[in-house]
Amino acid sequence: MSETGRAQNSDWETLVQYRRNGINEVSIQGGVAWVTGDDVIHQIGSQDLIYGRSLTKPFQMKGLTKDLDRELSLDAKALSVASHGSEEIHLQTLSTILDPARLKLLVTPPSMPLGAGVFAKKPSPLFHPCSGKHAAILLTCELKGWPTRGYTEPTHPYFQAYVTELRKVLGASWEPKAMAKDGCGLPTFSMTLVELAKLFSSLARTKDDDWIFRAMTERPEIVGGTGRLDTAIMKACGGKVLAKEGADGLLGLSILHEDYPQGLGIVIKIAHGWDPKATWFIASVILRTLGFNFGNPPALDRQKAFVSERVVPKSLFGVFARMIELDTAP
Asked: Do residues 73 and 260 touch, judged by C-beta distance below 8 A?
């Protein structure tokens, strides 16, 4: 049972298998949704409610972009929508948003650095992957005269600014079926994969309305960090793809593509939670089917990965098949 008392009958599909000498050893399930504008192009897997987690960070910032436009460098703008690894560039950029005294107002939980190869003696709120977002919210509170205390509560003016941005895309009457505290303390809303994909479609469609798309695609190393999937995708796709990881198995793609003038939003959910290698295989197949040169992760140990053709629409099955033949050739 969910916390709200509603049973959910998840109907996830197999997205990728790892096979050894033709025998399947691992099956990884999940769901995928493709949306352009208001049109659902393709969806597989469960449409149960899930929490948007860090996938919705661009929308947590959208209502603040005008206030922050002249206050933040491009690096700091990227950090405001990041799930960073506390690498040196991340911490240096964080210090440009607020001075040390004001950074003490952050209520992000003390954390150890997320980044591979990044070490610290003890946890700090600054090491939390969402500290850039929290710092940007606090700065906005100062600029707008909002209280700096209680900024993570649903009663705070910031919360209403965030909900307003979601309703611009999901409809004026949209209400989440459930709400919970995310790992950083801010509210996270329940949504379907289709709703999340609709949000990512709108990021491409409205890319010139604010700085979010540009900041993320021009500073991908700040959005994630070394070895991170979203960073790798944005580096490889020449400013045409915004990518954002979300906790517990989420990846959102906002794509500029001539076949989808309303913007293409694709969201991948791994049912068992965050699995960067499996998600990388799926994202690679999807992006290459769309014409982007994004490679596979490091090879499996004497296994081969087979991604289901159902991660793409039927109209792209032919492209998918030709690409997979090249991938699996001896």
From this structure: no
